[in-house]
């Protein structure tokens, strides 16, 4: 599971001229789901994002999470995060999860954050053509990939 996380002052998703999700101060998350991803990847990434300390404290240091600032999260599914461009010029998306699996994990990801952290989470519409308005602050943009997490205390990295 991959995510591009952006610190934003506001963000919204527009589908067919209608706003389907919007937030003020918080995180914009573009979420890609791979064909090998599991519920464990979802938990790891959701917890990492909710606790990611990328907001400035009173000393100007990135030391606060979205939870600390009582911010919001906007999550948009984006299978193109699994694009493979190594061969040729047309991206291959064979590593992306099939739509049914991706939608299931996407919905579970959103619900997990809402339930565990009691935070407002806005969304886009799965498989829709969306227009995003992102007001990145900083700019601060972080790339996360659950496949890079530490698998055990011995330090083996997947």
CATH fold-level assignment: D-tyrosyl-trna(Tyr) Deacylase, Chain: A
Count, helices: 2
- Tally of individual domains: 1
Text of the CATH class: Alpha Beta
Name of the CATH superfamily: D-tyrosyl-tRNA(Tyr) deacylase
Radius of gyration: 16 Å
Strand content: 35-45%
Main sheet properties: 6 strands, mixed
What's the average pLDDT?
A: 93
Structural class given helices, strands, pairing? alpha/beta
**Kindly, what is the distance between the CA atoms of the first and last residues, rounded to a whole number of angstroms?**
13 Å
Count all strands and give the number. Answer: 8
Q: Helix and strand string, N-terminal first?
A: EEEHEEEHEE
* Unreliable parts: 150-155
CATH architecture: 3-Layer(bba) Sandwich
Fraction of residues in helices?
10-25%
Overview of this structure, please?
This protein has 158 residues and is an alpha/beta fold. The protein has a single domain (2-148), classed as D-tyrosyl-tRNA(Tyr) deacylase (D-tyrosyl-trna(Tyr) Deacylase, Chain: A), CATH 3.50.80. The protein contains two helices and eight strands, in the order βββαβββαββ. The protein has helices at residues 39-51, 99-117, and strands spanning 2-15, 18-23, 26-32, 55-56, 62-64, 72-77, 121-123, 131-145. The strands form two sheets. Strands 1, 2, 3, 6, 7 and 8 form a six-stranded mixed sheet that branches. It has a two-stranded antiparallel sheet with strand order 4-5. A hairpin with a 2-residue loop joins β1 (2-15) and β2. α1 (39-51) crosses α2. The longest helix has 19 residues, at 99-117. Mean pLDDT is 93; it is low at 150-155.
